[in-house]
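2024-03-11 09:14:02 INFO receiving multi-entity request
2024-03-11 09:14:02 INFO entity count = three
2024-03-11 09:14:03 INFO echoing inputs for audit
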Amino acid sequence: MSGKEKTTVKAVIDGRQCEFPQGITILEAAKSVGIEIPHYCYHPGLSIAGACRMCLVEIEKIPKLQISCYMTVGDGMVIHTDNERVRRARKAMLEFHLVNHPLDCPVCDQAGECGLQIYYMTHGNYLSRLKENKVKKTKKAVQIGQHVMLDQERCILCSRCVRFCQEISKSNELGIFQRGDREEIDVFPGTQLNNPYSANVVDICPVGALLDKDFRFKTRVWYLESAESICPRCSRGCNIEVHYNLAKPWKNEGRRLARLKPRYNSEVNDWWMCDEGRYCFKFVDEEDRIEEPLIRTESTVRKTSYKEALELAAEGLRSIAAATDKEIAVLISPRAANEELYLLKRVFSDQLPGTRLVFSSATPFEPTEDEILRKKDKNPNTKGAGLIGLSPDSADVWQLSDLKDAILAGEIGALYVCYHDIPGLPEELSAGWAGAVERIGLVIYQGTNHCATSEKAQIVLPAAAFAEREGTVTNFQGRVQIQRRAFAPLCEVLPGWEIMQSLGAALGGSYAFGSAEEVFAELAENELAFAGLSYEIIGSSGCVANGAKV
Amino acid sequence: MPQVKLISRFFEIENSHQLSVYEQNGGYSAARRVATEHWAPEKIIDTVKASSLRGLGGAGFPTGVKWGFVPRDHEGPRYLVVNADESEPGTFKDRHVMLNAPHLLLEGAIIAALSIDAKDVYIYIRGEYWEAFRVLERAIEEAGQAGYLGQNVFGSGHTVKVHLHRGAGAYICGEETALLSSLEGFKGWPKLKPPFPALKGLFSMPTIINNVETLSYVPIVIEKGPEYFASLGIERNGGARLFGVSGHVNRPGVYELTLGSPMRELIYEHAGGIRQGRQLKAVIPGGSSCPVLTAGEADKVNLDFDSLAGIGSMLGSGGLIVMDETTDMVNVLCRICKFYSFESCGQCTPCREGTGWMTRIMERIVSGRGRSRDLDDLLEIAGMIFGNTICPLGDAAALPVTSFINKFRDEFEARVSNGSVAAASSPLNAEEL
Amino acid sequence: MSVSFPEKDRKLVEEIIRHYPHKKAAIGDVLYLAQKHFGYINPEVELYVAELLGLPAAYVHQVVTFYSMYLEKPVGKYLIMVCDNVSCMLCGAGDLLAGIREKLEIGPGETTADGKFTLWSVECLGACELAPAVMINEKLHGNLTPEKLDRLLDSLE
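2024-03-11 09:21:47 INFO inference complete, emitting structure
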C-alpha cells in the first residue's frame, strides 16, 4: 500500500480532459485552462455569495444547473460551461439583472467597463421585452463617503461591497437593507463610508452603483490608456495601473493622469490599495509643476535650459568643493527611484568626493499604518535607498538634524535638495530650520512641483513625476518593482536619473546610459543586494532583492 | 371513510394542552420508554424509518432517513430544530397541534433529540403565532417542572433542553437553511448547499430540522409501533397526516386522514362540500407552492406524496385551498405572485427580480392592460426562475404561474385579449421590430 | 447614548443570551424587547442594540429592515392586520378592507388621524380555516364579516 494521498481530481470541461487540484471550484478550474465563466458576485479575494447565478454550468448526472463559483470539481465530473442549456440560463440571468436596472449608460461612468454591458454583448438578449415600471430606490447619485458615490437603482445586489467592508477593511459600514426587489445597499443611517480603503468598493462594483467621486464625469473610460506602475505613496508599494488620457486633452482640465487602480499582486497588496495612495496623483498635473529649469538671482528669476542650469550648478559645486571651509551636502529622498539614487551616489562620489550625503525619509504626510496595507513610511523606496547604502544607518550618511546643525554652524556652502521641502514637514522635523536654507550660498532644488524650498533655490531643476518616467522602487519587504512610464513628461522635463547623468557630464564625467533599464543593469552588477536582477526578471510582479533566485 | 384520530384526538379533548390532561390520555409514555430504556439512536431511527413517516412541512423527505444523516463521530453539540414557522398560504395545521397538543410535539422532540444525541432543541415559531407561543411556553415550563425536559429527563441521565425562538414575519424562514440563518441571529437568508444541515447546520453543528406535525407523529409511531402506522397508509408514504381545508367549503378546518385517501372524500365528506351548492373549479392541494389542480384532477387523485407527484403536483404541507366556479383564476394567481415577490428574501437574482416582474405583469393583466404575449412571457419567466435559485422559494413562485396559466389558459387569454387595444398602440413593441 | 434599557430589561437580555451559544443569536428577542420598550425601532435604538450585543450598527439595521414585524416607524395604538392572501381573499377579505376604508377612512399602510388605528394588509396568518382572518395587535380574530369587524373595532378603547 503506497498510502498516497489523492490531491488531484480528473474532470472533463467542455470536452477537454483535465486534472485539477482537489478542492478547486469549477470556475477557478475553468479559468486555469483559459475558460472564462461569466460572474458578478464572485470575487477571488472575498467569500462566496452565490447570489448572481451568472456562473451556472451544467454537470452531467446532476439535474439542476450548478453555480461554478461554489461547486468544487469532483473526480469524474463532466462539465459544460457553454452549451445550449447553459447559454439559455445565462441569457435568463442577465435578463433578470436588467429588469430593474435604469438605462443610465449615457450618464454613467461605468460605461465601457460595466459588467452588464460586457456580458450583454456576448451573452445577452438584445431586445427587451420588459413593459413594466422599474422599481425605484431611495438614493440615486448620493455621496456616501468622501470618495464614493452611491446609486441604488443601478445596484445588482451582488454584495461584493458589503463583503469587502466585512472581510477586508473590517469596518462594516455597508449592508443590504429591506427584502426582495426592494433591497438597497446603503450605509447605516447617519454614517458615511469613510474607512481608509473605501474606494476599493468602486473597483469591485461590477456596475455603476458605486462610483469614484473624484473621477466622476471626468473622462469616458474608452479614452484611457493604462500603464503598470507602483504606488508612490508609502513603502508597501502596492501594484497599480496608471490610467491616463492623452486622446482628449481638453477633458478633465487637461490633466493627463485620470486615476490609479490597484493591480493584483498576491505578495504585496492582493487586489487592493488604500485611499491615500489612490488619490495621491494630483500633483502630477497640478498648476505648480515645475516645467522648465530656473535660475534665480537676488533680483530675477529666469527660465533656462538644463544645459545652462546644470553648467551653472556644476561650476558652483566645483568652487565649493575646492573651498576648504565649506562642504557640499545632498539631501536625498527615498521618493527617488533606484536608478536615480544609484547614479546620484556614483556621480557625486566620482566627481565631487567628500560631498555630504544626507538621507531623510520625512514627508509631510500623516504616518498612518494598519495591518491591512498602509505603512507609516510614506516613501516608495526607503528600502531601495538602504540597499544602495543610503539609509540613515549607512556609514557616512547624515540625518536631517546633522544637516541642520552643519548649516547653522555655517559649514555648508552648497545644498542639492532632491524632492524635499523642509518647511512643509511636520513641526517636530521643521523646527529650527527657519532661515537655515537662506544661509547657504548655492541651493539647487530638484523636484516635481514648486514649494517653499524651490522658491529659495538659486537653481531649480524640474524632475519627471513617477508616471512620467521608468524606474524601480523597492518596497519594505525588499521587493523590487518597476514603475513603467505612462506618458511623456511635461515640456522637456527629464527623469531624475537623466538629470544626474547630465549633472555628471557637466561636472566633467562621462556617463552614457540610454535608459533607466541600462542604469539598473549596472546597478545590479555593482550593488550586491540587487545581484542577478534585471527588468526582465522583475517583470510585472516584482522580485525580492538579496537572495532572490536568478 | 372516517378520519383517524392519532394527533387530532387531542383537538377534541378539553384542556389537552395541559400536562396532566395529556398524561391522562397516555402522553409521555413513549418518550419515557425511549429515555429510560436507553434506546440506541439506531433503534429509534430504524423504528421511524419502518413507519415510512415523511416530512409533513412540505418537502416529504423520509424522516428516519434524515435522522440517520447525522454523523455518529462528531465532536461537539448537535441540534434539533423544530420548524414551527408555518407560513405557507393555506396551511394552519401546526397551529392546531401547538394549541391543542403542545406536549405531543415536545414528546416527539425529546425522542428525536435522543436519536441524534442533541441536548438542545430550538423551536422556531413564527412571530405572528402569539397564542401558540404562550401555550408552548407554558407547556415547556410544565414539562420542565415534571422532569421531562432539562437535565436528566425522566431520570434517564439524558439532557434535552427546549428553547423557544420567535420569528419576526418572513415566510422564507420556513426554508430550513434560512431558518438556521435567522436562528443564528441574522436575516433569513438561505445558505448554499452542500454542506447539508445534518453535517453542518445550526452554528455549524450537525442539525436536524423537522416540522411540528412530523415530530408529533413520532410518539405515536413509537407507542403504536411503526408497522401499525405504515399500514394505515400506503407504501413509502407514511400512515396518516393532518389536512387543512379552506376556501369555498362549508366546513373549513383540520382533518386527519390516512395517506392515500381520495381527495374528493376530504373535500365533500369531511369539509362538507362546496358552499352554496356551487361547483368545484380548482384545488391547490398542499399550500400555494403546489401546482393547482383542475376540478377533474381533484376528483380523481388520492392524497399521498406519490399520487400527487404523479400528476405533476405535490402533497406539500397538506393545506388544500378549494375554489369554486365563481373564482377569478387571474386574480388568484396575481395574489399568489404578489405573495412570493413580497416574501422573496432577495439574495439571488432570478427570484428577487423574477417574482417582482411576474407580479407586475399580473397586476397589469388584472387591471386590463394585458398583452397577448404576456402569458407566454410569464411561462418563460417562470421557467427561467425554476431550478436556478439558491432555495426552493424560486421554484415555489414559478409553479403556480406555470400551472394556473397552462390549466386555465382560456380564462387568461380572455383577460389579456380584452386589454389588447391598449397594448397595440404602445411604441416599440418588440414583435413588430 | 441617549436610549437604554431599564435594569430589569437588561437582566432579561442576559437571560435571553443564555439560551444561545453565541450572543448574536439573541438579536431577535432583544429587538422585540426594544420594540416593546421604545414602541418602534429607529436608528438610535439600533445603535443601542448593536452596542449591547457587540454587533455593527449596519448589521442590526439589516435585521430590522428584513423582517415585517419589526417596526421602523410608530404605528397606531391598534395595528389591524387584514390577511388578503388566497383563502381569505376567496372568503371576503376585500369586503373587510372596504369596510375599514369606509369606517376609519384609511387604506393599507395608513394610520387614522387620531393615531388609534393603523391598517396593514398582510400575508397568510395561518388561520385559513377562519377566513377571513384579522390580527389586531397580538390577538387573532376569525370568521369575520364587515359587520363583525365593525363591532370589534368599536369595542376597542
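2024-03-11 09:21:48 INFO post-check: Chain A touches chain B at residues 48, 50-53, 56, 63-65, 67, 70, 89, 92-93, 95-97, 99-100, 127-133, 135, 156-157, 176, 178-183 (CB under 8 Å).
2024-03-11 09:21:48 INFO post-check: The two ends of chain A are 40 Å apart (CA to CA).
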